[in-house]
Amino acid sequence: MANLIAHPWRGALVIAAALQLLLVSIPTAGSAQQATSRATVKVPATTTASRLTIAAQRIEGSPPSIDGRLDESVWQSAPVAADFVQQRPNPGAPATERTEARVLYDDDAIYIGMWLYTNDTSGIATAIARRDYTGFTDWAQVMIDSHHDRRTAFRFAVNPSGVQKDALEYDDGHGEDVSWDAVWHAAAHVDSAGWTAEFRIPLSQLRFTTHSDSDAGARDQVWGIDFLRDIARLNERDYWAPLPADGSRMASVFGDLTGLSGLSAPRRLEILPYSLASVTNAPEDPDDPFFQQNDIGRKLGTDIKYGLTGDLTLTATVNPDFGQVEADPSVVNLTAFETFFPEKRPFFVEGSDLFEFDIGFPFSDRNVGFGNDQPFYSRRIGRAPQGGAPDSAVYTDSPEATTILGAVKLSGKTARGWTLGFMDALTRREMMDYTAPAGDRLRTAIEPLTNYGVARVRKDFRQGESGIGAIATATDRRIGDTGLNFLPSHAYTAGVDGLHRFGSGNYQLTGSVLGTYVRGDQDAIALVQSSAGHYYQRPDASYLDFDPSRKSLDGYAASAEVEKIGGGHWRWRVAGHARSPGFDMNDVGFEQSTDWLLEGTMLQYVDYQPGKHVRNWDFYATQLSGWSFGGERRTTSAGLGGDFTLLNNWGGYFNVVHEFSALSIDALRGGPALATPANDALGFGVFSDQRKPVNVQLYGNLLYEDGTSRRSFYVEPDLSVRPSGRFEFTVGPYIQWNRNPWQYIAQLPALGETRYLFGRIDQTTAALTLRARYSVTPTLSFQLYGSPFVSAGDYSEFREVAEPRAKHFDDRFHTFTGSELTHDESAGTYGVDLDSDGSVDLHFADPDFNVKQFRSTAVVRWEYRPGSALFVVWSQGRSQYSPTGNFDLGHDTRQLFQSPSTNVLLVKLNYWLSL
After folding, report:
1. What CA–CA distance (Å, rounded) separates 24 from 36?
2. Where are the alpha helices (DSSP H) in 514-599?
3. Where in the chain is the domain with CATH 2.60.40.1190?
4. 381 SS3 class
5. CB 770 within 8 A of CB 726
6. pTM, 2 dp
7. SS3 217
8. What would the pLDDT profile of 855-885 be if each residue is shown by its tens digit?
9. Contact 708/677 with Cβ under 8 angstroms?
10. In this structure, what is the dihedral angle of CA atoms 582, 587, 592, 594, given to the nearest 10 degrees?
11. Region for 16 from its dihedrals, namely left if φ exceeds 0, alpha if ψ lies in -120 to 50, beta otherwise
């Protein structure tokens, strides 16, 4: 370990060498799952030696009418997929109700027919909801692996009311992209025997390969396929080709769909132009020369999809708008690190799986938060401008987000196992108008013209059981004369990753190496070196060298992990991670912390077979240790946890983690490492039977710190009510109490040295999330989101750091006495007499705060024709801040809703064209 710390590049080389040794020494056992032969009825599907097989039947005459009735004669002669098997609640048992599925096709589409029999038609559960509904209802579903790569699939579903749902499954079921929306048609019909579902899926909505030779049309296609049925009243899910109960595999165990002869990948050109009109009504400020009480907005743009080949699709957007996207939740962030918000914009969400590159660490505690780290974080594109007005500015007028001039994606999968993803986006140079004290109107640049690019490639082997990939990203800013020299002009990342499954697919080895390079003006690189997560300026970090004259910075991250993912009851995982201090991918990626050497292990026992009281349960233990590249022990923790589901479909989870005392190299935000106390944390959750019209969930977390007064507790109950199949609403209050005696406040110079100021914070946060939906038809719906938020922090017991590595907590700080500390309430400042000479040696602002916000969005969505929609959106925002730490929920809420509001009314119309 000492050698690795002294020579950090060796850490990556050791991990890479170990990964290579494991790859060459592990037997490459085949992973095909044995399937039991099944008796079938009528014209049956067949079973090969390794998996189920069903043949599709070509339609010779007119295609069936998509009405859900399945009464055309062509359905009766097609081979049948039957004898479904439960995945839950009794894994491996025969399905409670009989289900049959058949497949037809012609030159334009694939047709799926499913017969879903039941002994009790009154028990058929349904809902009338908008597309991609995830609530309580029966479903008929088909998943098609048209790439036949054993890793990806297109999912199509319909419920008894004709509500459609679709998604892209990837990484053999470990990832799902619900934002993927195809243009297809389905219908359902309920009769005395149960219900039937009928699908028409155009070939243009699937991705498959045809051969380049002249007889391509005569050669058969073989796709992966599986059918599934959800019986909501029984909380039962049945598959034709059985999936493991733990969901560890999906496409790799599908059956085969054969008999697809004479298919050619169709030409695909889809255009989705939109027009938008909006009006924004903001609180009046008569002195602001930029103020417009009613600001009218107009916008035109378009999205384009073009199938370059059967494998590759080009997607472009020009002047995109995301006005219908739900607002981010309110937060108060008292850390040095950026808050992560998930991507919600449809253009960037769809196909985001192609750019995933796992460089994280599968273990986490309070000190290690890698769960959101990724080299490509699409919310950087169109982010809020990073510049600001001069301190002398009186009034300002600037955009909330950088304008995206255009973006293009190239994505697809080839017959030889290559997955390709490329995206490039250009954002506009943004300007801010402001007024000087003399009243002059001036302009300044707040964001440069910027190009963002990412390329991802992956090659699969052994039918997706092994693979190797690479990624590269680039951010190029045209700084020029903008005055934004604090931004890097160029930032690049490049890396490789790999996956190898063995032992019949029950074991998995993964690894990755990623390097970063940032270049720019001296100010920009100095800012990166001294920023959160790097802190090259730390006075006790002899292994780091802060160089203000540098014009570039580079670093690396490397990971390796081996785990047992299936087979039997036991699971385990061993992982290692190295991340150098100079690693930085925040220009187009997301990271919070660097300078880590980590190892972790996990052992888990799972049981999916129902017992006398419990339907399924698991229990696990974890261990984690981490150091800086200078050998400082940054974290050590041990934890226990488990999940359970009872026979009545109630369930819950818990986890208990003990973190030992360690050194934090981030707590003083560029100062020396600070010893942190040990702590214990308990997380828990309980949920009721989701089948009931009224169900509840309760989540919470408790933190207790040894030897200090630090305590933290939050609880988040959710109540969901479903009065009918058309209407449901959810109310989710949230309350958190946090007392922290060593909350960072500031670092200020005084008496010739830097003083690190802390204080005790007593913080209370309350929020409420309300969601409601009402659907007139599956294509006409109303959705409402609203979230009031109040957080107040009261500071006391101000102190400075005295001996940051002292053994006892009280010895690490000097708490200011009443004679040392003065408070100027009118100025909102504190003064400290550090040398007891009667004069104030430093001032700092009163850190008390009371933040109130309300955000809401109401959306009417009408899909007036397949692929085309009309949105009417009303959003409202309110906010208020006061420099007081008092929390009074009733008073604060009244003040919030009495404060002025900003209202936006938006109408957006798009029209889908297939050419």
Report:
1. 33
2. 522-530
3. 46-261
4. coil
5. no
6. 0.85
7. helix
8. 999 999 999 998 899 999 999 999 999 999 9
9. yes
10. -10
11. alpha
Torsion angle of alpha carbons 286, 290, 296, 300, nearest 10°?
A: -170
By DSSP bridging, strand 662-664 and strand 651-659 are unpaired
Residue 50, φ and ψ in degrees, nearest 5: -115, -25
Q: Residue 804 — φ and ψ, nearest 5°?
A: -65, -20
Q: What are phi and psi of 12, to 5 degrees?
A: -65, -40
Structure tokens at 83: 């004898």
**Which residues have C-beta within 8 Å of that of residue 640, sequence separation ≥ 6?**
619, 620, 621, 622, 655, 656
CA distances from 312 to 206, 306, 469, 807 (A): 11, 9, 18, 61
Length of the chain: 915
92's CB contacts (< 8 A; 6+ apart) are: 85, 86, 242, 245
φ and ψ at residue 348, rounded to 5 degrees: -85, -30
* Cα distance between residue 249 and residue 224, in whole Å: 14
Q: Which residue has the tokens 């002059």?
A: 440
Q: Calculate the CA 84 to chain-centre distance.
A: 33
Alpha-carbon torsion 212, 217, 218, 220, what sign?
positive
What is the fold, at CATH topology level, of the domain defined by 46-261? Answer: Immunoglobulin-like (2.60.40)
**Token pair 């009931």: residue:** 692
Pairing between β-strand 52-55 and β-strand 255-261 as defined by DSSP bridges: parallel
355-361-365 Cα angle (round to 5): 130
CA dihedral 745, 583, 479, 317 (to 10 degrees): -100
* Other beta carbons within 10 Å of 132: 15
Structure tokens at 668: 């003083």
- Please tell me the distance from the alpha carbon of residue 758 to that of residue 737, in angstroms, as a whole number: 19
Dist CA 88 CA 232 (whole Å): 11
Q: Please write the tens of the pLDDT for every residue from 48-100.
A: 447 899 999 999 989 999 999 999 999 999 999 999 999 999 999 999 999 99
The alpha carbon of residue 821 and the mean position of all alpha carbons in its chain are separated, in whole angstroms, by: 45
Q: Residue 606 and residue 739: Cα distance in Å, rounded? A: 37
Output the CA angle 162-92-82, nearest 5 degrees. Answer: 50
When comparing pLDDT for 1 and 836, which is higher? 836
